Amino acid sequence: MKLVINGDQRELEDGSTIASLLASKNLRPEMVVVEHNGEIVPRTEYDRTPLGDGDALEIVQMMAGG
Fold first, then answer.
1. Can you give the CATH number for the domain in which 30 is found?
2. Number of neighbouring beta carbons within 10 Å of residue 13
3. Integer distance in angstroms from the first to the last C-alpha of the chain?
4. Enclosing domain of residue 38
5. What confidence score (pLDDT) does residue 4 get?
6. Which has the closest alpha carbon to 32: 61, 2, 10, 1?
7. What is the mean pLDDT of the chain?
8. pTM of this structure
9. Please, which residues have CB within 8 angstroms of residue 54's CB and are 6 or more apart in sequence?
């Protein structure tokens, strides 16, 4: 399936979830905020949120430091 992630078109396996996408990119769920089709997804829902063909995601990483 094809998705748009942070403005770039990407291909993912059918049946992917937000959690599986983050794991494939070595991103820790507690260090990101994910917007799925214009709606912010609670972290507790990452493993239960399926991704579909044509979906749009924005993934913002939090940075530590001062």
1. 3.10.20.30
2. 10
3. 39
4. 2-61
5. 98
6. 61
7. 95
8. 0.90
9. 1, 2, 3
